[in-house]
Amino acid sequence: MADATETDFDRRLNLKPPVRLTVEGLRVIYRTRRGPFQAVDGISFEVEPGTVLGLVGESGCGKSTVVKALMRLLPDGTRIEGRVLLDGQDLLAMDKRALRRVRWNKVALITQSAMNALDPVIRVGDQIVESIRAHEAVDRATAWRRAETLFRLVGLPAHRLNEFPHQFSGGMRQRAVIAMALSLNAGLLLADEPTTALDPIMQDQIMSRIRGIQELLHRSMILVTHDIGLVAENCDMVAVMYAGQIIEKGPVAEVLVKPRHPYTIGLHNAFPRMPEEGEARPPLISIAGGLPNLLNPPPGCRFAPRCPFATERCRVETPPLRELEPGHSAACHYAERAEDFRRLGLLPETWAVKEAAA
Amino acid sequence: MRAYILRRLAQSVLVVLAVTTIMFFMFRVVPSDPTVMLVERGISEEARQALLERWGLTGSLWEQYLRYMGNLLVGDFGSSFFYRQPVWDVLLPRIANTLWIAVPGLLLGALIGSALGMVVGWARRGGAVERGGILVATIIRGTPSFIIGIALLAIFSSWLGWLPGFGMGDAGGATGLARYLRWDFLLHLILPLMAVVIYFLPENLLLMRSGVVENRTEDYIELVRAKGVSDARVAWHAGRNSLLPLITWLFPALAETIAGIVVIEIVFSWPGIGRELVLAVTRQDYPVAQAAFFLLAVMIVLANLAADLTYGKLDPRVVYK
Question: Among A81, A257, B136, B188, which one is most buried in terms of CB atoms within 10 A?
């Protein structure tokens, strides 16, 4: 924002440090008619101030539920256990007023579907002003000026603040949502599949916009996605979720280059990548089967029914998440054999056998 | 926008014209002779002819129709057979009487109804507030307006004896606005007004509730909550979005509710236009009945027009073409 004159937003920039997020034993149980549904089953992770954590997994693995739990947006009657510490303050233990103060001030949300994320009958500018004035005693004009600054920051012309969401394209709406998330310069940003509904070119624009903002503002961030490529480009750390559990986590360079868990290996192979010089195009391999029923989770490793390397032990004994190298953990009994798994995992036959058996 | 309004106005005029025409012929094909009540028996043939001429009842049906429409264009509804005075003089004070219960009744019904609907819609799903609210609203909605009126009469007038339930009270010969500036009039107003409010309220409540219930699970509501605004403010977003279907329903419903008000006027012997309409029909007082129907048609058409125009104000996505 070197080109803009100093605004109240610039002055605030230096005032708010990025947040340290520590999640301990987070468990989310939805109440359903057919019994309790364990969407998130005791996960722990940390986001160091100013870093980006990628939270990956297939649809239904619980990653969006984690994000909602972090802002306490889950429906009434949902049981949430564990601790969510924002700079040491437990968000899950807060009363309503304290929670209201923390929302958007300390932790802001960039939501999944840019389509309906904005109120259709309120001007976009007024929706940003609303978020500012909910927390700061500033007049409307000041808040509006800050909204203009934010719009420039995400690459939208300021006069379009006067328009309604339906006058925006999908990409513009996503930018507006990002601008709104930045309106109080919260120390932690939760980006829940921010590019899922967009075409690849727009995806790339939005992600480089988010990267640019991250470099400028040094916010802590969680990027929720099912796209391994996005994680590789944007994140420092990554946590892979499967059926409500984290099955592998560590630095991006470690986890994506030398995955230890068969699921991570499979996920990796299921995404297209550019072949290296002289190398044949690697085949796309899908992982057969689906997520286990979390109303009544099976004993043992939850990935065992789809894992080509599973043994009898896997079906009986739940593997703990254990640290294999400093900062890199995986929940697999046979993580030490990962090198073999990675080699075998590249062959379509390995996964096909499983498919035939299933 | 202006072209749109003009076109809708032209359509409205056509509708009113059609209604008027249908009304005119409907009353003429009813197998009874209005002259019976107008013209005394034993009167000489010349006198009878003179009278018929004076009341515009001579000539073929078509001639009568053209004469009627011509007079209508200059605002002349003719004279009442029964009261023997111009229709306007008969209807104007009665329209004013009706407005006293209709306007505040419908306004209060819509306001209280949608406010309660927001509360019930925002309450915990499956909780006592939601179940109770829906149950009570549905029961009242299914109750005909005369039952509501009779129940109010029975409780507050007959049993408790707190409020009068018949007519508007004695104006003591006062005319114009002075008729209404009486404590006694206000006491008489309470029960019929309450009946209109109670009659109109439940549907507002139920529509608002279902709108809020639908909207509270929308993505934008989640984001508003995440922004850390107050609960009331979040509910306001849901309510604001639920207004759209409510308004489209509201104005045409106003027209329908007028029918309910007619009945309430009769229960409370409120000398309004609705009661007069019913009396005029039984008295075969065609000029009054036709004029009353004409005014109702105009009201309904205007209500629909108002609905379309308000909708565009409330929802920026609506474009007039």
Answer: B188
Alpha-carbon distance of A222 to A201, in angstroms, equals 22
In a domain, A247, yes or no: no
Same domain, A262 and A226: no
- Interface residue of B227, B234, B242 to substitute, partner A, most A CBs within 10 Å: B227
A29 found inside a domain: yes
Of B14, B40, B73, which closes a domain? B73
Q: Which of B17, B48, B73 is the last residue of a domain?
A: B73
CA nearest to A176, candidates A152, A200, A144:
A152
Which chain B residue has the Cα nearest residue A121? B315
Of A99, A100, A113, which has the smallest distance from its Cβ to B219's Cβ?
A: A113
The answer to whether position B321 is within a domain reads no
Beta strand spans in chain A (E): 21-32, 35-47, 52-56, 79-86, 89-90, 107-110, 188-192, 220-225, 237-242, 245-251, 322-325, 328-330
Q: State how far the alpha carbon of A310 is from the alpha carbons of A1, A306, A332, B219, in Å.
A: 53, 8, 10, 40
Q: Which residue of A has its CA nearest to B220?
A: A117
Please name the amino acid found at residue A249: K
Domain span including residue B133: 90-314
3-state DSSP assignment of residue A347: coil
Q: Residue A14's pLDDT is what?
A: 57
Query: Residue B171 forms beta bridges with which residues?
Result: none
Q: Which residues of A touch B219 (CB under 8 A)?
A: 111-113, 115-117
Q: What is the pLDDT of residue B42?
A: 63
A1 within a domain of the structure (yes/no): no
Determine the pLDDT at residue A10: 60
Structure tokens at B309: 């125009």
Q: A238 forms bridges with which residues in the sheet?
A: A54, A250
d(CA B3, CA B9) in angstroms, rounded, equals 10
Asked whether the CA dihedral A313, A314, A319, A323 is positive or negative, the reply is positive
Residue A253 placed within a domain? no
> CB A164 to CB B316 under 8 A?
yes
Its ipTM equals 0.84
Do residues A146 and A206 share a domain?
yes
CA-based nearest residue in chain A for residue B237? A119
Distance, in Å, from the CA atom of B114 to the CA atom of A23, rounded to the nearest integer, reads 42
- Which residues have a Cβ under 8 Å from the Cβ of B229 and sit 6 or more positions away? A100, A130, A131, A134
- Looking at CA atoms only, how far is residue B308 from chain A in angstroms? 17
Which of B220, B229, B247, B318 is the best mutation test for A, with the most CBs of A within 10 A?
B220
Range in A257-271, A310-324, B15-29, B159-173 with the lowest mean pLDDT: B159-173
A181 lies in the same domain as A230 = yes
Q: Are strands A188-192 and A220-225 parallel, antiparallel or unpaired?
A: parallel
Tokens of A310: 């599973």
pLDDT tens digits along B70-80: 888 888 888 88
**What is the residue whose two structure tokens read 């932690």?**
A188
My answer on whether A224 and A116 are in the same domain is yes
Contact check, Cβ <8 Å, A103/B237: no
- Calculate how close chain B gets to A278, using CA atoms only, in Å: 47
**Distance (Å, whole) CA A279 – CA B70:** 93
Q: Which CA distances in Å does A37 have to A29, A137, A295, A338?
A: 5, 42, 5, 32
What is the average pLDDT across A69-87? 92
Residue type, B314: L
Check: CB of residue A265 under 8 Å from CB of residue A64.
no
Q: What is the extent of the structural domain holding A326?
A: 258-357
